[in-house]
């Protein structure tokens, strides 16, 4: 009799345990994140007994929200062991495949993954393989992997963006117009399921691929189709003179639709943000009207640009004592503001991880070259907000690899204050930030960000330097 009661008791405990796990599984991510530490700990213990990997995802998200990297790693490791054919195991297998550089071994690893994981976990791996094949010039192979992805998964269309972008800038004889049209139709059927994520706002993927379709049509000699696509894209744009519309105008110019293209191309020059081929197509359009003296016409546009920039520079000029700062040269020697007094200084705060910083460098190089023979002007490229212990080496290598002839300085983070002294002194909140200091040690200009124009950057810095040298207000 006692034995029967014991068995019944154990059964009851098991049922209670199963019920508790089931109840814990019903908790939402928001509810879990809002629990106090004790209640969260109890719930997490139950979630980690679940047979549903989705409950492990909740725990990972919880620890991520608490910035507990150790626990995140621990739970992911447990999930890989418990669900060898699951989500986290697929991510780990994808990482292994990504690290493999041998093409044949990479393909073998992917084939093993296809046998091991369901299709819903393969999209990221296929996307990685698409990028690998594109980087190695194998567009046909890349298309094959893109086609293997689920139609409802956004990675399929991100992969299409990569493929079509590469085809647009390549000279290869590959007609992808039918592919792009078919895939864009599938994109429109599925886009509503992806939500309002940042990358999905304003149909960004659609617009890029659609533009690449216009290029593909042009490459195949189908100018009328290319023009129709550009007109469709223009109708979706709210910024008549934005960077996208400059691309559209350039395509229209290639198709000899000059009347529509020229106003946008002209504004690109006046705003100091032309493409490398903008001048060429303006000249084609100018001469198509039977006009001569293009140089006079183009110089007039450049004059407008300089006048606009000078007016803007006069509006943002300041005149206050520059803060004291200490930076180090590449040899570790300290350099202070006192050491540099008497010169007009252009200080560019940047970092190797900063995309806009690096995008601004062609313009900064042009500006530095313009003043390289002027000993009264000094450009200092100050690396700050480092994210690596090898920041100096990485900065040197980046400049060398990209042929930038810059005077590099380092603004290291102070271990005690956890701040970068020079950046803090100038109240730098984001990079790139450029400051101009006059020979008397006064801060005259502070500019944050990069708007994407090489010509305008050179003109703007030139105006700032000239005003600083003359100590004008």
TrEMBL record:
GO terms for biological process: response to stress. Keywords: Redox-active center. Residues 316-470 form the Thioredoxin domain. GO terms for molecular function: antioxidant activity; oxidoreductase activity. The keyword Kinase does not apply. Coiled coil: none annotated. Gene3D superfamilies: Glutaredoxin, Tetratricopeptide repeat domain. The keyword Transferase does not apply. It holds the Pfam family AhpC-TSA. This is TlpA family protein disulfide reductase. It comes from Aestuariibaculum sediminum. The lineage of its organism: Bacteria, Pseudomonadati, Bacteroidota, Flavobacteriia, Flavobacteriales.
């Amino acid at each position: 009799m006692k034995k029967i009661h014991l068995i019944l008791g154990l059964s009851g405990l098991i049922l209670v345990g199963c019920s508790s796990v089931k109840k814990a599984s019903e908790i939402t991510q928001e509810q879990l994140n809002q629990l106090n530490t004790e209640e969260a700990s109890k719930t997490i213990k139950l979630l980690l007994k679940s047979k549903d990997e989705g409950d492990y995802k909740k725990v990972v998200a919880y620890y991520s929200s608490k910035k507990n990297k150790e626990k995140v790693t621990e739970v992911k490791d447990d999930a890989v062991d418990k669900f060898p054919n699951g989500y986290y195991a697929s991510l780990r297998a994808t990482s292994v495949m990504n690290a493999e550089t041998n093409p044949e071994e990479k393909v073998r690893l992917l084939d093993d993954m296809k046998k091991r994981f369901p299709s819903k976990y393969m999209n990221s791996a296929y996307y990685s393989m698409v990028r690998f094949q594109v980087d190695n010039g194998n567009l046909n192979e890349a298309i094959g992997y893109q086609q293997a992805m689920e139609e409802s998964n956004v990675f399929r269309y991100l992969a299409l963006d990569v493929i079509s972008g590469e085809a647009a800038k390549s000279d290869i004889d590959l007609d992808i117009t039918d592919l792009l049209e078919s895939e864009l139709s599938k994109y429109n059927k599925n886009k509503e399921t992806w939500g309002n994520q940042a990358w999905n706002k304003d149909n960004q993927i659609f617009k890029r691929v659609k533009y690449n379709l216009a290029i593909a049509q042009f490459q195949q000699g189908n100018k009328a189709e290319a023009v129709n696509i550009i007109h469709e894209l223009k109708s979706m744009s709210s910024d008549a003179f934005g960077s996208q519309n400059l691309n559209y105008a350039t395509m229209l110019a290639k198709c000899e639709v000059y009347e529509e293209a020229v106003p946008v191309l002209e504004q690109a020059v006046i705003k100091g943000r032309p493409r490398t081929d903008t001048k060429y197509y303006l000249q084609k359009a100018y001469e198509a009207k039977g006009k001569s003296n293009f140089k006079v016409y183009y110089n007039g546009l450049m004059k407008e640009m300089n006048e606009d920039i000078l007016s803007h520079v006069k509006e943002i000029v300041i005149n206050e004592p520059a803060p004291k700062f200490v930076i180090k040269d590449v040899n570790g020697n300290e350099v202070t503001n006192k050491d540099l007094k008497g010169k007009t200084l252009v200080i560019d705060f940047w970092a190797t991880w900063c995309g806009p910083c690096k995008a601004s460098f062609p313009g900064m190089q042009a500006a530095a070259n313009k003043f390289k023979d002027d000993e009264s002007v000094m450009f200092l490229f100050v690396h700050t907000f480092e994210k690596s212990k090898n920041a100096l080496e990485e900065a040197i290598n980046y400049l060398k690899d990209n042929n930038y002839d810059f005077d590099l300085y380092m603004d290291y983070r102070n271990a005690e204050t956890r701040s970068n002294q020079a950046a803090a002194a100038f109240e730098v909140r984001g990079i790139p930030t450029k400051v101009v200091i006059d020979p008397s040690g006064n801060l005259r200009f502070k500019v944050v960000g990069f708007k994407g124009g090489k010509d305008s950057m050179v003109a703007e810095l030139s105006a700032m330097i000239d005003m600083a040298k003359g100590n004008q207000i």
